[in-house]
Amino acid sequence: MKKVKFLIIGFLGSWLIRLLAFTIRIEDIPKGFNKKTKNLPAIYAFWHCMMLIPAYVGRKSKIQVLISQHSDGEYIARVIKKLGFGVIRGSTTRGGMRAVKALVDKAREGYPLAITPDGPRGPRYVVQSGSIYLSKKTQLPIIPTVVGLSSYWELPSWDKFRIPKPFSQALMMYGDPIYIPQNLREEEMEYYRYLLEKTMKEMAEKVDNLVRQKGT
């Protein structure tokens, strides 16, 4: 019965995202970067609450997405698969080493990766060190990615998940790549963890202001 439930949610969820996103005007900064994300070898990092628009933009791509092994992660995994992504199950807390190995293998095959560095359970807008470790192991640069929405609903979840309202505007902003040295020592990881967190917070504030200006 549970398998049928997951199947239905995966199908309906993916089509609801497509239908909703079809009504939304999506722009990117830099212009034209959305088309590059599907094949550019990199780790795309975006906050957990902002995953809906990236899920649509990156559909039918080679991108491999890290999804937690928590029960709610199964729903997300089903939807993401239906949208055409590769899915790796695990996180920095459960199934961590297996997940990292699978992601490293995919990176070596030339696949881009996507992670939510504050997931799967938060704290919100706090980067976990696992994202830095993953970049170190794969030697793929981390590209900070944020999404601004002109109008949205906010769910009462730990991440305050955002659902864009129909016929609103979305602005995706990509930051400069962050390269993690292969010989990075354990005590040096905090510098890059904080750098990614600070960069993404500043970008999120900037993109929110920009999308509001475009809407006025």
Kindly summarize this structure in a few lines.
By secondary structure, this protein is of the alpha/beta class. The protein has one domain (2-215). It has helices at residues 2-22, 33-36, 52-57, 71-82, 96-108, 130-138, 189-215; strands at residues 25-29, 43-45, 64-67, 86-89, 113-115, 142-149, 152-154, 162-164, 169-174.
Order of SSEs = HEHEHEHEHEHEEEEH
The total of helices stands at 7
Quantity of strands, as a count: 9
Low-confidence stretches: none
Beta-strand content:
15-25%
Shape: globular
The average pLDDT value, as a whole number, equals 91
Q: How many separate structural domains?
A: 1
Structure description:
By secondary structure, the chain is α/β, with parallel strands linked by helices. It has one domain. The protein is built from seven helices and nine strands. A seven-stranded mixed β-sheet has the order 1-9-6-2-5-3-4, with helices on both faces. Strands 7-8 form a two-stranded antiparallel ribbon. Keywords: Membrane, Transmembrane, Transmembrane helix. Pfam families: DUF374. This is DUF374 domain-containing protein.
What attributes does this structure have?
DUF374 domain-containing protein, two-stranded antiparallel ribbon, alpha/beta, transmembrane helix, transmembrane, about 220 residues, membrane, DUF374
Task: Indicate the topology.
Layout: H1 2-22, E1 25-29, H2 33-36, E2 43-45, H3 52-57, E3 64-67, H4 71-82, E4 86-89, H5 96-108, E5 113-115, H6 130-138, E6 142-149, E7 152-154, E8 162-164, E9 169-174, H7 189-215
Parallel strand pairs: 1-9, 2-5, 2-6, 3-4, 3-5
Antiparallel strand pairs: 6-9, 7-8
Helix pairs in contact: 1-4
